[in-house]
Design goal:
By secondary structure, the chain is an alpha/beta fold. It folds into three domains: 85 residues, Urease, subunit C, domain 1 (Roll); 301 residues, TIM Barrel; 90 residues, no CATH class. The chain has 17 helices and 21 strands. Strands 1, 2, 3, 4, 5, 18, 19, 20 and 21 form a nine-stranded mixed β-sheet that branches. The protein has a six-stranded parallel β-sheet with strand order 9-10-11-12-13-17. Strands 6-7-8 form a three-stranded parallel β-sheet, with no helix packed on it. The longest helix has 16 residues. The protein is globular, with a radius of gyration of 22 Å. The mean pLDDT is 92.
Length: 523
């Protein structure tokens, strides 16, 4: 007898193949049978009446760990309502493990205050043990954030690493791999990675390739330097053979949109002519969210946050910074402040509003905001062309993710302003008419494809022997009302959601079940 049988569903199994009507049988947290009809009985049987039955969605570009909501908002309602059953953390160069010592965790400070949790681990294994003790709402695996370990070793010294330091960093990476880490992430846009040269990056990438793990890359520049940044990633892959995913691929800023054809042509040549193992993830929105200091010229941030703030408070330097920013390709006037832990009254205001209140231009307002908030401030900005988004999403190598953060109901307050991707990305991707993809292609992009690329064993498909991570939703009703102007809406239409065979959502209501598993990849 099965523990559970879902009957009469429209099954989209995650492979990309055509859907069909049938039943799914579950026993001991695993899928035991997928067929047009299951003759045996189940201890529990649910008639899902033609609803879509798919694998649970996999978000490979999630930040619930480094934004600490896995600890502070562990119900992760925003992820559950989207049908997300598995998240990969440690993205964009920043992870919560491994740690050399306390200052390694400081890379997280640009988003959240660190006094919200007690960090009682150093190694990846100890970190996993702590998560297991707390209980997981969804399945979770982590990458090694290379920015985090490099910063913890060098502090705020902006220089290339020595051969001995590189050996120590590579030892940290391989130790984390032995303890189950899924790969390494580079955050090349952030100041503490500026001095990581080609030799260093390739050495890390080569190690990742030797262990058959994945490398994810937050590129150095997504604006005027996006083409050179794509070429840098391709160069790393070409010389190391590492399986690589570009994180949240996009071209920011209207002045840079004419680079799209060159970027796409360069990528396609690497993928199809050179047959390099390159993929990328995309979030299905036209607005980006990021730390505000990335709008500054590179030289201003050299030496770390304290050096940057000291420069910005020097009047002569400040005027030079403002002058350079005026030549920037970003449209600062449309920026919305999305987080400011030190001054929550700023949240939801536009940079234009702040500039008007101060009687200054938007560039000077940005500098003033960075100083006033001690650089702990993020902004949301409209800067992505719809046609580019569409073509990226529809690409054969595209994986759709959120690049967001899991939240519970406490996020709906006047102290926060979330990007709608955190509460609605998967639902929007499913329901949007902007993308010319079949239902089967859409599900493949958020289930089977990410599971295969990240080597997530027994997840991402509805097949015998796979983990019973299963989403059940009405194809017409599953959608998101969250918008950039009004993001405070969880996704609607997810009827059931099972994680490892247990229901975390049942008959359109959330349960209190914590049945997530740690995802490791050991040799």
């Amino acid at each position: 007898m099965y523990d559970l049988i879902l009957r009469n569903g429209f099954i989209i199994d995650g492979t990309g193949e055509a859907g069909f009507e049938g039943d799914v049988g579950v026993k001991n947290g695993q899928i035991q049978k997928v067929a047009a009809t299951i003759a045996d009985k189940g201890e529990q049987e649910i008639d899902v009446d033609g609803k879509c039955v798919t694998p649970g969605f996999i978000d490979v570009s999630n930040h619930s760990d480094t934004h600490l909501t896995m600890f502070t908002e562990p119900h992760l309602t925003g992820l559950i309502r989207q049908g997300i059953t598995t998240i990969i953390g440690g993205n964009c160069g920043t992870s919560l493990a491994p740690l050399i010592h306390g200052r390694a965790i400081q890379a997280v400070r640009r988003w959240v205050p660190m006094n919200q949790i007690n960090v009682n681990w150093n190694t990846t294994q100890e970190y996993y043990q702590e998560l297991k003790r707390r209980g997981l709402r969804v399945n979770y695996g982590t990458l090694v954030g290379y920015l985090s370990i490099r910063r913890s070793l060098l502090g705020d010294e902006f220089r290339p690493v020595t051969d001995g330091e590189l050996d120590a960093l590579l030892k940290m990476v391989t130790d984390a791999f032995d303890e189950g880490a899924l790969g390494v992430s580079f955050g090349l846009a952030y100041s503490h990675m500026y001095m990581a040269d080609r030799k260093e990056l390739q050495a890390v990438a080569r190690t990742v390739a030797e262990y058959d793990r994945v490398l994810t890359v937050h590129m150095r520049d997504e604006g005027s330097g996006v083409l050179e940044s794509v070429k840098e990633v391709i160069d790393i892959v070409r010389h190391t053979g590492v399986r690589t995913e570009i994180s949240h691929l996009k071209i920011l800023g209207e002045k840079n949109w004419d680079l799209f054809e060159q970027v796409m042509s360069t990528l396609n040549k690497a993928i199809y002519e050179e047959e390099l193992p390159i993929s990328f993830d995309v979030f299905p929105y036209r607005a980006n969210n990021g730390v505000l200091y990335l709008q500054l010229p590179y030289w201003v941030t050299k030496g770390g946050k304290e050096a940057m703030l000291e420069r910005l408070q020097d009047e002569t330097t400040k005027r030079k910074v403002i002058s350079e920013m005026k030549r920037n390709s970003e449209d600062f006037s449309r920026m919305v402040i999305s987080s400011s832990p030190n001054n929550t009254r700023l949240v939801g205001k536009t940079v234009t509003e702040v500039a008007k209140n101060q009687g200054v231009g938007v560039e000077e307002a940005i500098v003033n905001l960075l100083v006033a908030t001690n650089s702990q401030i993020t902004t949301l900005n409209y800067g992505i062309h719809l046609r580019h988004l569409k073509q990226f999403v529809e690409h054969e190598r595209a994986i759709v993710g959120t690049d967001g953060v899991g939240h519970d109901e406490s996020v709906f307050s006047d102290l926060t302003y979330v990007h709608p991707r955190s509460v609605g990305a998967m639902a929007r991707f499913w329901s949007s008419e902007e993308f010319s993809l079949s239902p089967e292609e859409r599900i493949h992009a958020i289930t089977g494809k990410p599971a295969e690329y990240f080597r997530l064993k027994h997840r991402g498909l509805l097949q015998q022997g796979y983990k019973a991570d299963i989403a059940v939703f009405d194809r017409e009703l599953f959608h998101s009302d969250a918008t950039l102007e009004d993001p405070f809406h969880f996704a609607d239409g997810m009827t059931y959601l099972f994680i490892n065979g247990k229901a975390v959502r049942k008959e359109n209501e959330d349960t209190d079940v914590y049945n997530g598993e740690l995802i490791t990849q050991n040799i």
